[in-house]
Design brief:
Helix content is about 25%, strand content about 25%. It is an alpha+beta fold and about 850 residues long. It has 3 domains: about 35-335, Glycoside hydrolase 38, N terminal domain (7-stranded beta/alpha barrel, Alpha-Beta Barrel), CATH 3.20.110; about 345-555 and about 815-835, no CATH class; about 560-595 and about 620-815, Beta-galactosidase, Chain A, domain 5 (Distorted Sandwich), CATH 2.70.98. The strands form 9 sheets. Strands 22, 23, 24, 25, 26, 31, 32 and 35 form an 8-stranded antiparallel sheet that branches. A 6-stranded antiparallel sheet has the order 21-20-27-34-33-30. Strands 4-5-7-6-10 form a 5-stranded mixed sheet. Helix 4 crosses helix 6. The longest helix is centred in the middle third of the chain and has 33 residues, at about 410-445. The chain is globular and about 95 Å long.
Amino acid sequence: MSVLMMGMFRSCAAALLISAAALPAANPDQPVREILLVHFTHTDLGFTDHPAVARELQRRYLDIALDAALATRGNPPPARFYWTVEASSTFYEWWKTAPPQRRGQFLDCVRAGQIDVTAMPFNTTPFLDAQQWGVVAHWLPEPLWTATRPSAAMQDDVNGFPRAGARLLLQRGIRLLWTGINSDSGGPPIPAPSAFWWKMPDGQRLFVWVGLHYGSGYDFFEAHSWRRGPVPRAADTAYRPPRRGEIFASDEGSVRRAQQRCIMQLRALAGRGYCYAMVILPVTNQWRLDNDPPFPPLVDFVAEWNKLGLQPALRFTTASDALQRMQREIGGKIPEYAGEWTDWWANGTASAPRELAASREAKRNLAAAASPVWGAVDQQVQSTIAKLYRSLCVFDEHTWGSSMSAALPDSLDSAGQFDEKAGLAWRAMAKSEFLLSQRARTRLANQPEGLYVVNASNAPLSGWVRFAAGGLRAEFVSVEDLSNGGRQPIRFEDGMSPWKRPRGPQDLTALNTQAVFADRSPHRVAAIWVQGLAANTTRRYRLLTVAASQPSYSAGPDIRLDGDGWPVSAIWSGMADTLFLPRFGTFLSERVRGFAPRWKAMDVFNAGAAERASLRSEVLEETEAKAGAMARFEDTGPTLVYEQPLSHSRLRWAIRRLEIWKSEPRARYTLRLNRISSDEPEAFFVDFPLPSGEILPRLSSGGEEFVPYRDQIPGTCRDYFAFDGWAQYDTPRGHWLWFSRDAALVTFGGNQLLAKRSTPPENPGRVLAMIFNNFWYTNFPGNSHGTMEFQFDLLWKRPRESPSAADMAAAVMTEPVIEINPGGREEPLYLRWLYKP
């Protein structure tokens, strides 16, 4: 996106000592003595064009940049063309098809310092898990990494950068991070341009340049915008890139006028507190700013500037060289910060809940497929896992749709762009599921007859294990645990019967508004209760045709209900507090009142702190769902189940389900809803109040733990948090562990939309999962609707226990693997050609 930033700058702490031999004498009105001009294209895998076109454009741009660099190799260094590769993923695609001669020329320009390949494959969202960050840090093959010698990373546009990524960069030897943050609906943590040291928990530090928006360098030399918009596609022949002389003209008169404009802009910077003798100015082409080609005539503009001896000095260079120079000049004077760098733009991802859920399921499948329970991971499996993680990394890249995705949500361009994006998640989910089944069948297909339940996670598993009853090829009604001889009946549940015409309303649940197939057919789902299945282990059961008596279970917790039969508290023996508080599982929505509601939301966000609270009350309207009927109760034996329909004006239907374990303080909440189609902005939350007091939770992003509000870089987003799916409260009265299977955004204390919080909220134990949000006016889907499902788990552990939410999350959120083996041996050709990954 291309909205330019004009932020206010704080005063510099002290004047910097600059080498007098290198730069002219300081001027208090305009301290900048040298400008480092860095030319690149901002890479969006979409937004301006369909992702397939955007990728092709980026590959073609590399050939333009390479030829421009080669054409000026014989010039003195100040008159050479320089190009920075912002995103190494598109460079790698170019490299794979480039002939040897072009590869050699490219590496020659890298060695000469004219072309700079940076370390990040793309500008990314904060939704990558730890495995994905490992993939991102090794996107280029090691020989190519060595040959291109990245020394800096770039993250443009996006408003944050996970500490997990920063630590991986440091491990790879990258100690310089460039950011060109877009202030639209967010902004940089400190005024731009400026810099700080980012200190990691292990004491290592990353030099971070908080630069101007990537398109703003142009405005330091040109008084008028050349672009005509809004954001034309590359195929739109009514628009074109600028030609020589239309921008950055290199005749003497034009260059002198550009110098006067530059001095005026630099004085404005100084007036806002910029006091360094050197500044980095990013320059992109002016066709669209994003996904734009190199502008070769820029080298002539710089050469003429320096030929005329104009001040400040203008140095055409690369991002890595510019950052190294800035670090040498100001590294001893800049502040140091520590903590997570949370992202204002993370809320956009909640506009596509189903696709987000699919990507998270794919990640769980891949983790399960890599479990040691299946045996060694061979090269073929490793290769498949790596390819799927790459697809998921691209899915988590920051571009989620067309520039007109909210304005024209049903246009072919908007639909096509999001289809390409969404397909990355859907394909990864399907292929990861198939890979996991291959791993299971290869390991278990020739094991003795029985039903196998496999926990492929790193923590013990307890709960119902469900599978299609059609997989039972005889009249089995019970199972025997062959590890201890215990027997239990198979629990049969209603479900969908595909291709069966419903006879009447009795064959349909309230959710089945399509009425195509009966979904209240008996014996469609089979379930057995599994208790304490250890991490990465398999348990075998014998299937029986004789009935078994129901095992005895504890009475369970003391549960209080509200007037509609919904639980408001649950206390087990040994607990001083309830597991949860009243309102647990409350659904609520937020809509924006007023004309052009997305702009009204921006008005609130951009308002001053003094008026923002009153504007939020005026603009935001909160509506809670009401109980649609008394909750239905069922005692399943090991659990207690409460199910209740909900009524809400924005939902066609909704039903919530709370399952409470008898044997341990644990509950699982599942919400299914059908959102009524609407292009207007709204946000959905599910409320989970916990009795944890004023204790702040621990979260994790990319496998890196942090405490929100306390362990954050100043100025970063505190309204909501992208997280790995768990929150842990450690109190003197015990540990509360909350897990979110599908939603990847959370906030605390209440709805914080548009609040721009700087302090912790009251009641941080009130956890709100953000399950939907289409407030963004561009780049994210404008109208996801239809059926969606979200699942959450809550556990309590005693104070003396030392639970690890990170270890338990996979066991809680990942379904165990089921294999039903008949007698006899599997067909060898199936094992060789079908089941083997």
